[in-house]
Amino acid sequence: PKPGDESYCDEDGLLKTIYEACQISVESEEDVPVPHTLVSEEQLQKAIVDNPPAWESGVFSDGTPSTPADKLTRPFTLRRLSNGIRVGVGQNTAESQRGHLRITAPGGRDAEKR
């Protein structure tokens, strides 16, 4: 854009716009209390009883052979528990005393009642 065009922005125009935006009155929103947890202890214990975790074997869609539930693969192992928890374990060859562990629990829309 060139000077005079509606979409042209120079330093003065930018400063004027920022100044005008700073003059707008802002009202604070009412605080909304957020619970520490969305699931009660009783619901959690019932879910553990109803969905006991058990390792599932690794099944792959890219032609990789399936692996038994009790076999670790190198350098990275991905496994899923029967209750939906996913676990990823990685070896760190640069530091012999270090590794990587990632645990992912299903949530959000996936956790809603269907």
Total number of helices: 2
Sheet-strand content, in percent, reads 5-15%
Helix content: 10-25%
Instruction: Outline the biggest β-sheet.
Output: 3 strands, antiparallel
Characterize the structure shown.
With 114 residues, the chain is of the alpha+beta class. It is 19% helix and 15% strand. The protein contains 2 helices and 3 strands. The chain has a 3-stranded antiparallel β-sheet, with no helix packed on it. The longest helix has 12 residues. It starts with 10 loop residues before the first helix and ends in a 10-residue tail after the last strand.
Topology:
Layout lengths: L10 H12 L18 H10 L25 E5 L5 E6 L7 E6 L10
Antiparallel strand pairs: 1-2, 2-3
